[in-house]
Amino acid sequence: MKEYIRLMKALSDPNRVRVLKLLSQKELCVCEIQDLLGLAQSTTSKHMKILEDAGLVSSRKDGSWLIYKVAAGSKTARLLLTDLDGQFGDEPVLQEMVFRLSQVTRKERCC
Fold first, then answer.
1. CA–CA distances in Å: residue 85 to residues 48, 67, 91, 97
2. Which of 33, 52, 69, 108 is the most buried (most CB within 10 A)?
């Protein structure tokens, strides 16, 4: 039950759900996520830490960049992410972010 509660808490914030939807499109670094969400770097990092602690995302270092991707570690996380995959396609804020996703480039944004 503890894992389930942690997953539900991680998914209780709209920005974290949006991040998961964006990461289902492609891997992103913190500064790209920050740019898409329009949040401060510290706030973005806190959101990412919550998602990582819940086992919903994983990260790797690539030079000076910290790259995130969806990582459904547990069976429960996989089920939740599968359900999330078909949701919120008509949400205007998310649609705009997905559109901007193609315009965000790591080298321009993060250097």
1. 19, 21, 13, 16
2. 33
